[in-house]
UniProtKB/TrEMBL annotation:
Keywords: Signal. The keyword Metal-binding does not apply. It comes from the Bacteria. This is Cytochrome c domain-containing protein. Residues 1-23 form the signal peptide. The keyword Signal applies. GO terms for molecular function: electron transfer activity; heme binding.
Length: 95
């Protein structure tokens, strides 16, 4: 039984590795919480939730990336989609 769960675990890890390598941030919320408070707090982001279009968020995240935000360029679309999907005042950002 124990050996079986180890085998399943190994298979899952091996299957997931290439998916991870193809980008698509698995935890965009966590990335934002880590990478987007280095220069300003979340209030600046919070104010814009529910306001910006998806294209607007892509522009902003791209600008933050060029300022030095520690995110992967490949994750910009996923992060922008995540921000665009959050409602105004979302507790994830606006606590
Ligand atoms: C290297 C410093 C830095 C990091 C890291 C950073 N920002 Fe910013 N951000 C700024 C500065 C400086 C401004 C004000 C000037 C401007 O808007 O370009 C700003 C302004 C903003 C604004 C308000 C202006 C607008 O276009 O709506 C938003 C929203 C924003 N940042 C979101 C983010 C997000 C999301 C992240 C994480 C991906 C992030 N920031 C990471 C420096 C940073």
């Amino acid at each position: 039984m124990f050996r079986n769960s180890v085998a399943v675990f190994v298979v899952v890890v091996v299957l997931c590795a290439p998916v991870k390598a193809l980008a698509q941030d698995a935890d965009p919320g966590g990335t934002l919480r880590r990478a987007c408070v280095e220069c300003h707090d979340f209030r600046r982001i919070c104010r814009n939730l529910g306001e910006k279009s998806l294209a607007g968020w892509e522009k902003t995240v791209t600008r933050m990336y060029s300022k030095g935000a520690k995110i992967d360029a490949a994750d910009i679309p996923a992060l922008a989609r995540h921000l665009h999907g959050l409602e105004s005042g979302s507790g994830e950002i606006c606590k």
